[in-house]
Design brief:
The chain has 88 residues and is an all-alpha fold. The protein has a domain at 22-68. 59% of the residues lie in helices and 0% in strands. It contains four helices and no strands. The protein has helices at residues 3-18, 23-29, 33-45, 51-66. The chain starts with a helix and ends in a 22-residue tail after the last helix.
């Protein structure tokens, strides 16, 4: 790797690490990390994008979606607060 590539990689590492100080930013960008890593590796380091790399990225993305922890939107049912339920 050239000095320029090392400098860019170091700068990206600093920016990525700094993003964890902003938790909402870090959580928002988490699902996109595999895509960003693949693109930056291709652009900056000249890595080849292979089918196994794309499959690995898809697998990581599915895993991140599975452990995301954000509640899914549920349909709300309007309930009259004055109505009382009686035990059966």
């Amino acid at each position: 790797m050239t000095a320029r590539q090392w400098a860019l990689l170091g700068g990206l590492a600093v920016l990525w690490g700094a993003s964890f100080f902003f938790s909402k930013v870090a959580l928002a960008e988490l699902p996109f990390m595999p895509v960003i890593a693949l693109l930056l590796g291709w652009l900056l380091l000249g890595e080849r994008v292979t089918g196994s790399a794309l499959a690995g990225m898809a697998l990581i993305f599915c895993g991140l979606l599975a452990i995301d922890g954000r509640p899914r939107r549920r349909r709300r049912i309007a309930v009259d607060p004055r109505a009382r339920s009686t035990p059966a």
